[in-house]
Design goal:
By secondary structure, the protein is mainly beta. It has a domain of about 120 residues. The strands form ten sheets. It has a 22-stranded antiparallel barrel. Strands 3-6-7-4-5 form a five-stranded mixed sheet. A hairpin with a 3-residue loop joins strand 42 and strand 43. The radius of gyration is 30 Å and the shape is elongated.
Length: about 1000
């Protein structure tokens, strides 16, 4: 996108924001009068329960699918600048993305993206709705960004913890999260809030305003809202173990690989203060006669201090005696060059949102309406400091080398050596800046009418949404230029780039032996101002119509019927910059001029190599749902059968059918209800999986398996910087899942009024799961003899080409997960004590979460209880609150159980030396396999002053509980933001006002 186009986008969004704010002020001016008006006569409106887990709309109907609800009071008590954070605290939500996840990534485009994941099945298998309607995706994976949702007018959030594809269509495999807004709000309300961590960072400021007023004898309803949220984020630490602020929990916890699998001792060792020995902060000669020679900030050579008393072997493979060759780690020693802690703990977020709804009552029973939502989210993060680079071949004639090293080269009869560096000489670190702008409009109608002597309800709508995402990466190396700039020589007494072609095209040499800052001209050459860039546009069109009614009655009551149809179109196009994409015919070549040094095929950046692409598909659907009352008597209770079926036709993969069958029974036992439901659910492949342009990610320090018989042309052992290329597959088919839920509910029994508890067992089996093998998996399978994977990579290419691994998605995997959901609450009052007391608890047990990659030789892995992932054995949320007319106080506990290390393809076997079985890639042995769970205590309080003003405060993570280390097999951030709080104690305070 040109600068002019970008500016116009900002201007148009700002205009929408100002216009909406102006309308809010106009409506607010009349809100005082509106609040004194008599509410519209609703006596003609049939009382009904609208259940997110079903399309049935009927008085007294109870759906068999469990649904958890968070009301407006729950969301206000959480006091979060983004209600997404409050909702993700529900135990059934596991693996959601957010501002603290994905910050280590440069290329994913998902930094700061807030999306839900139910049951640990991933954000792509959870359907998120706004007032029961789909929302345009904010990413090519098909997931929306909750930060772009209007939030102040949300009056409740329903979380359906079971399959709902028969009711709502694709993606509802794990369940549905439905935001329900107040469509009849009259008055004015505002909220301002600020917050900061106990470490003085991640300052937050939130301002929200909403107004609603009725006109034309209360037939015209107008509502507007606007909000602005600024979250400073937590900046990255530095090199070594220098965590941001005064946090002291980072210890470079790593699983070091001994490389020996069958000697009775563990293959992997859990160690803290790990040291990658192929590079240092300012450079290290990593193999050969001069191995172990490092450089300080001034460029002076010194003998590097390897951990564990390691001694360099001086061999060509760079092994260090006393350290671990596989993965290249020592323990202890000089850790100053480690880069793992140099990752933002939370992305910086700026969120702006406006929402308008205009409804008009045609009569007492029918309304037409239109809504418009304009929103923008800007985020930024630092994925790592410097740009750790290994495997560089440096000439002994480089004029920047100290004379002592030149002499040592001559004395040892060498003309070149291998070199690795963290590139701490770069004055600025890599930063990633995604901006998502969303425009979404809906026109619709709902109401009721009479037909065939019966009353019917209907709702119909058309939605069009567009989401534009622009990603800029700044201060990142253009690798071919970097490689040219570090190879220096002397010509006519001047130090210049050794390559005459590079020299003729603007190459300026740099000195990488030490920390000398490159000149401005050199920085402009190796980190040009126009860095990696991606512009993508996603569009969604939906037309939907639904009917519900009670066409006839049976012996036990009226039969309820819902039916309808939907048409949907999803499309996207994306454009990457020419240096990443390789499209030298791009119109932006003035910003990215041709350079013969660069690879014409693209992938020239250290990371963030975005590629161009496009794709679209359409969907036609029809469904029907029926509720049949079976029993209705005092002696036998009340029972009903609920069934639904959906026909879906995808333009890409054809027709698929989904269904559900469920039942509820309100037994004769006081307050006891039994429920059960089974369903067939689907998730269609998203645009990214079908048509994704190649996504290239740099994998520094990629581990090459050690073997005596490597694949032809491939090396054995060691580590290398490699590129992982992920591409789409247009032949994918929908995933098919079978859901079963069986439960019991005790609600408000006469012997304990105000008490309720539910227990539900769930079981989900997903087949044909769309997945791609990771780069390490592909290489490991090939080295283990599965030759079908050997053509997907080359770790020893010729001609200066960077080692690469190609990865593609397939319908290969299966997932089986089961467990229990428990929810309980008790509301009561105490004699002589004002107010009401509420105790509420929710718990999810993940009994198993078995993933089978579905490839030859692969073993199914049960990741339930792996606290390095998102599915602990138990996850609990408990809330105790006391509310009076003016004062409220609550205590909340968030807890999850102890667990272990692992991944979706790895399940470690803990054992002691002398007792270990043979270690395999899927069942590797390890000496320590324990991750402590965590308990987080939050407290909140509020006070109403009686004039519509409320003061509130909240402290999250009151005890400032640090995260448990989640070790990496590389020196990454050794913490898991999917479960653990990385920020520490957090203070919030704010004011609410309403009239």
């Amino acid at each position: 996108m040109s600068a002019v186009g970008s500016t116009r986008g900002v201007a148009s969004f700002s205009s929408a924001l100002l216009a909406s704010s102006a309308v809010a002020m106009i409506l607010a001016a009349g809100a005082a009068q509106a609040q004194t008006q008599t509410p519209p006569d609703n006596t003609s409106v049939v009382t009904e329960i609208v259940v997110t887990g079903s399309r049935i709309r009927s008085e007294g109907f109870t759906a068999p699918t469990p649904t958890q609800m968070l009301g407006q009071a729950d969301l206000e008590r959480a006091a979060q600048p983004n209600i997404f954070t409050a909702i993700t605290q529900l135990p059934s939500l596991q693996g959601s993305s957010g501002a603290t996840t994905g910050t280590f990534s440069t290329s994913s485009g998902q930094q700061g993206l807030s999306s839900f994941s139910l049951r640990g099945l991933g954000t792509i298998r959870t359907l998120t709705l706004l007032d029961g309607q789909r929302v345009v995706p904010a990413n090519v994976t098909g997931v929306p960004d909750i930060s772009l949702f209007p939030q102040l007018l949300v009056e409740r959030v329903d979380v359906v913890t079971g399959g709902a594809s028969a009711s709502y269509g694709s993606d509802a495999v794990g369940g549905v999260v439905n935001f329900i807004t107040n469509k009849k709000f009259v008055g004015f309300k505002a909220n301002v809030q600020t917050g900061v961590t106990t470490y003085g960072d991640n300052h937050q400021w939130l301002a929200q305003v909403a107004a609603g007023k009725n006109f034309m004898d209360d037939r015209l309803h107008v509502q507007v809202s606007g909000e602005y949220d600024w979250e400073e984020g937590v900046p990255a630490g530095g090199f070594g173990e220098d965590a941001p602020g005064s946090r002291d929990w980072y210890t470079t916890a790593t699983l070091v690989n001994r490389g020996i699998t069958n000697d009775g001792s563990p293959q992997y060792l859990y160690r803290e203060h790990a040291q990658a020995y192929q590079y240092t902060k300012y450079g290290l000669i990593s193999s050969g006669p001069l191995q172990g020679t490092a450089f300080d900030i001034s460029g002076n050579p010194f003998q590097f201090q390897y951990g564990g008393g390691g001694v360099p072997s001086k061999a060509a493979n760079g092994a260090v005696s006393g350290c671990y060759t596989n993965g290249g780690f020592c323990v202890g020693g000089d850790l100053s060059g480690n880069v793992g802690v140099g990752t933002s703990l939370q992305s910086r977020i700026k969120r702006m949102n406006t929402y308008t709804r205009v409804g008009f009552d045609l009569d007492a029973n029918n309304e037409i309406y239109a809504t418009f939502n304009a929103a923008r989210v800007e985020s930024s993060n630092q994925p790592n400091p410097g740009a750790a680079t290994t495997g560089l071949t440096m000439s002994c004639s480089n004029p920047y080398l100290p004379a002592s090293i030149v002499a040592a080269c001559a004395a040892n009869g060498i003309t070149q050596f291998n070199f690795g560096t963290s590139n701490a000489l770069l004055p600025r670190n890599i930063t990633v800046h995604p901006t998502r702008t969303q425009y979404r409009g809906v026109i619709g109608a709902d109401g009721k009418f009479n037909a065939l002597g019966k009353e019917w309800r209907y709702d119909a709508y058309y939605e069009h949404g567009e989401n534009t995402t622009n990603i800029h990466v700044r201060d990142i190396l253009l690798m071919p230029r970097y490689r040219a700039a570090i190879q220096a020589t002397t010509v006519n007494g001047q130090i210049v780039c050794a390559d005459p072609v590079a020299r003729a095209n603007g190459c300026v040499p740099i000195n990488i032996f030490g920390g000398q800052r490159p000149s401005d001209a050199a920085l402009a050459y190796i980190t040009p101002k126009n860095g990696p860039y991606q512009h993508s546009v996603q569009k969604q069109d939906v037309a939907s119509i639904n009917f519900s009614g009670e066409p006839f009655s049976l012996w036990a009551g009226p039969v309820s019927l819902a039916f309808g149809g939907e048409w949907r179109k999803e499309q996207y196009h994306v454009q990457g910059d020419p240096y990443g994409d390789g499209n030298t015919d791009s119109p932006n070549t003035t910003d990215y001029p041709a350079d013969p040094v660069l690879n014409a095929a693209g992938s020239n950046w250290f990371a963030g190599n975005y590629h161009s692409g496009a794709g679209k598909y359409s969907v036609k659907e029809a469904y029907a749902e029926v509720n049949i009352p079976l029993v209705n008597s005092d002696a036998a209770g009340r029972a009903n059968l609920n069934m639904a079926g959906r026909w879906t036709d995808y333009s890409t993969s054809g027709t698929v059918y989904t269904w559900k069958v469920g039942a509820t029974w309100d037994t004769p036992i006081d307050g006891v209800r039994l429920r059960a439901v089974t369903s067939r659910d689907v998730r269609a492949p998203n645009l990214s999986e079908l048509f994704a342009a190649p996504v290239t990610t740099t994998l520094p320090n990629f581990t090459i398996p050690t073997t005596t018989n490597p694949p032809p042309g491939q090396p054995s052992g060691g580590a290398v910087t490699a590129l992982q290329n992920v591409v789409g597959n247009p032949d994918l088919k929908p995933e098919i899942a079978k859901n079963v839920t069986i439960g019991a509910v005790l609600s408000n029994p006469q012997w304990l009024p105000g008490f309720s508890i539910s227990v539900d067992w769930y079981n989900i089996v997903l087949n044909g799961g769309i997945s791609s093998l990771g780069a390490q998996q592909i290489v490991n399978f090939c080295y283990q003899g599965l030759t079908q994977f050997c053509g997907a990579f080359n770790l020893a290419p010729s001609g200066g080409v960077t080692p690469f691994i190609n990865s593609q998605t397939f319908n290969l995997a299966s997932i089986k997960t089961s467990g229990f959901d428990i929810e309980s609450s008790y509301r009561f009052e105490l004699p002589s004590v004002p107010g009401r007391f509420t105790i509420r608890g929710l718990a999810t047990n993940t009994h198993k979460f078995v993933t089978n990659p579905g490839i030859p030789g692969a073993v199914a892995i049960d990741s339930a209880g792996q606290n390095s992932g998102a599915t602990p054995d138990w996850k609990v949320l408990a809330i105790q609150s006391w509310d009076t007319d003016r004062f409220a106080f609550s205590v909340q506990e968030r807890w999850f159980s102890d667990g272990r290390f692992g991944g979706t393809t790895t399940e470690y076997v803990e054992c002691k030396p002398g007792s270990c079985p043979v270690s395999t890639s899927s069942r590797p042995t390890i000496d320590y396999n324990h991750m402590s769970g965590a308990t987080y205590v939050d407290i909140s309080a509020s006070y109403k002053f009686g004039n519509g003003l409320q003061l509130y405060g909240k402290v999250d993570n009151l005890l400032n509980r640090d995260p448990t280390p989640s070790p990496q097999t590389n020196t990454g951030l050794d913490a898991n933001p999917a479960l653990y709080d990385l920020l520490g104690r957090f203070y919030h305070v704010g004011l609410r006002y309403s009239f």
